[in-house]
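Run log, item B.
One chain of 74 residues. Sequence copied directly from the ordering sheet:
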Amino acid sequence: MFRPHPFSWRPGADRVRHATTQDMPRDGARFESLCGVTTTADCGEAAWLHPTCDACNAEAHRVAGVPMPLANAR
């Protein structure tokens, strides 16, 4: 699987999308996220609609070398 950054996004059983540096976890597999949370991958149909973890998002931007967008830039 092509992965342009050393992390991937995966919805967790805690109903939040997290980023992880582990290989893409299969549905039901435990994984540790960039924010330090360990959760179970949830690949259900609605799981991709879960909100993004703010801490994972900030760490993913740091790892990728991409600045966070300004809150008022939308």
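Observations after the first pass:
- The beta strands are 8-11, 17-20, 30-32, 38-40.
- Helices lie at 54-64.
Flagged for discussion on Thursday.
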